[in-house]
Design goal:
237 residues; alpha/beta; Rossmann fold; SIR2/SIRT2 'Small Domain'; 2 domains; three-stranded antiparallel beta sheet; binds adenosine-5-diphosphoribose
């Protein structure tokens, strides 16, 4: 094992692309068919909650039709092996799917929320559910009708766990970004934070991201192919 013991991996939609989940900004991405303002902002939800609920209901329903790919599984393997060696892998994901969990990883931070989590705006309770929610649905905790929104961080809202993420970057030896375009902050800024702290940095992405030049190294290709190879390199170093 090399000196690298603590690793932070930031993941984005690209790591789930080979599982069949659409990315946002690639050709054929979700934002080609949907307006961000309409389905991914608090204002859009206030204006047309039915549209927003049905958008996330469809994405939640898709989860049962997809499987984790070799990239998710390789990260779970890395997590397990680092733990055995007294190290730590922290997966900071912008993804709202559950493929890291189903791939076997445990130390996952969902900074943009989760499709399988719901948030009742009446009683301010969050709860897990794979069901579809409509304006007719009742909160299972307080029974309020039509008040349950997806527990997804929309544009204009504060991402979750920012202090925890920054603490993990501060304590890591290596920061790796996988499958993200680097278009959305604060996640896009984590590489600069890592560089400012003199951490090693690596990007694995199909195309160079917007902040590609900040990384010490960029590997271009499919996550499902490149991530297992990189994990083997780390474990065999
Ligand atoms: N392997 C590796 N990278 C891939 C693959 C693949 N198989 N397929 C696509 N990519 C890369 C693309 O080249 C692109 O740079 O994944 C990136 C996906 O970028 P986006 O669609 O912008 O997704 P992401 O970066 O996760 O978006 C960030 O934007 O709309 C919001 O909240 C949403 O969390 C999301 C955030």
């Amino acid at each position: 094992m090399s000196k690298i013991k603590n690793i932070v991996v930031l993941t984005g939609a690209g790591i789930s692309a080979e599982s069949g989940i659409r990315t946002f900004r690639d050709t054929g991405g979700l934002w080609e068919d949907h307006s961000i303002d309409e389905v991914a902002t608090p204002e859009g939800y206030a204006a047309n909650p039915e549209l927003v609920l049905s958008f996330y209901n469809a994405r939640r329903a898709q989860l049962s039709t997809v499987e984790p790919n070799p990239a998710h599984e390789a990260l779970a393997r890395l997590e397990q092996r680092l733990l055995e060696k007294g190290g730590l892998l922290t997966i900071v994901t912008q993804n709202v799917d559950d493929l890291h969990e189903r791939g076997g990883a445990k130390n996952i931070i969902h900074m943009h929320g989760e499709l399988l989590s719901q948030w009742c705006r009446a009683c301010d309770t969050k709860f897990k559910s794979a069901e579809a929610f409509t304006l007719e649905s009742h909160c299972p905790k307080c029974d309020a009708k039509g008040k349950v929104r997806p527990d997804i961080v929309w544009f204009g809202e504060m991402p979750y766990f920012m202090d925890t993420i920054e603490a993990h970057i501060l304590n890591c030896d290596l920061f790796v970004s996988i499958g993200t375009s680097g278009a959305v902050y604060p996640a896009a800024g984590y590489v600069q934070m890592a560089r400012g702290l003199n951490k090693q940095t690596l990007e694995i992405n199909l195309d160079p991201s917007e902040g590609s030049y900040f990384f010490h190294e960029t590997r271009l290709g499919k996550a499902g192919e490149l991530v297992p190879v990189w994990v083997d390199e780390i474990l065999n170093a």
